[in-house]
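Pipeline run #58 for the internal structure catalog. This entry was flagged by the ingest filter as a single-chain record with no existing model, so it goes straight to prediction. Upstream metadata was stripped on purpose; only the residue string is passed forward. Reviewer on rotation: M.T. Logging verbosity set to normal.
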Amino acid sequence: MFFSRRAALAWLAGVTAPFGPARAQTERLRLLLNTSYSGPVAFFLLAQDRGYLKDAGIDLAPSQGGGASVVVPQVVPGGFDAGYGDMCSLIELIARGKPDDGPVAVYTTFNATPLTIAVDAAGPIRHPKDFEGRTITGHAQDSALLMFDLLAAATGIDTKKVRVEPSHAGMGSQVGDMLAKGQVHGVFGFVNTIIASITPLGIDSARVRFIEYADYVPEMYGNTLFITRDVYRDRRLLVERLVRALNRGLAETAAAPSAAIDALVKFSPGANRDINLTRLVGTLKAEMAHPEGARIGIGDMDDQRLAQLIEQVVAVKKLPRKPRLDEVFDRSFLPPDAERIRSLATR
């Protein structure tokens, strides 16, 4: 059969373009989220609801996770293809494994870390050093608790003088007890998660002050989309399509957050619309609003900043080796520069 040059080029474009019409059968991809189906992850569900993932040849199966740090080591043993979790925890996991064997970050959405410690706004704690001689509580696998050593190293806290008490209570209840009883002096968590947790309990967020990690450890990134090493090696075109589809979903979420909440409620009818809209808008305005986003766009990472973060995580946690930058993050799957989201950055 004779093909003209134009026809051959058109056929190749259809086969290789990320959203081209000619494509192999849809591939299933199992994703472990950092949390429940909620506002901060609604952009995944918007991309799914509007068919962007289907158009990319992806049958996405998202599962709820138990925290940004705890999900990181669960992805591979759980049979997932990808995860959405904490960057510092990912660095730690990679550094504890063999070179070029761990998962790889491909799309970092939180260019500012959301980790925080909530304290009584009327109390005496105004600086991390003020926690010495006091007690902080939180879930045992909370990212802020697990990364407290990074905050301590950056601010000179003597961790031997701080009592950390794991708690099984809900985050809202932890904050309520702190304010009412004064037996603990801080609660680990995410800023927006804490606000969402205390609001239904009638606790005014003005009663809480946040000691934010980003103010003291500016190198820290937050949540990132990462893939297993097997997927990274064998399904690279699928990863590119995944990132492009999610980027489109996030861009449309930023433009119309209520549309993403519509997709969330459609996917998970029990989700509270108002609370999740508040959480989503808070995430867009805080975790995705680092000035770096205006320069390189959400999804990308600054090499110098990432290198400093790797150094800190390895040194503070006394890890067995220091991973290379390209072991931790590969930007080659990102959308073209012109398609990256810059509108959320504060300047």
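catalog note: The longest strand covers residues 27-32.
catalog note: The first helix runs from residue 5 to 16.
status: ready for reviewer M.T.
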